[in-house]
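Reading a protein record of the kind used here takes only a little practice. The record below shows the convention in full.

——
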Amino acid sequence: METILIIEDYRDLRDVLRDLLELEGYRVITAGSGREALSTLSSERPTLIVMNLGLPDMSGLVLYETIQMTETLRRIPMIVMTGFTNIDINGVKMLYKPVQWSQLRNAIADVLEPAVQKLG
């Protein structure tokens, strides 16, 4: 079973995404801040990270760079959701807000399929 880490500071959105992804059959772990995400990543290795760039304690770009500097984490594929349409991160699937559930679900399938094939 694939595990998805959702990093989103808005609790209601985080909870809705968790519930929808669990209904799709994923194991879901959540974090509401960059620090919480890093703490979670110290003990968990999700198959995919879905994150918002606007976090309360650190920029999502700083969190992304921190993850990329860690050998064991940089291989985890990411989907970034943001309202900033002028941001593009090379090699990362970007979803620009407002994001529809179908867009996120399709992006997850697109990103996870090659990642799971690499593991298999």
Helices lie at 11-23, 34-41, 60-68, 101-119.
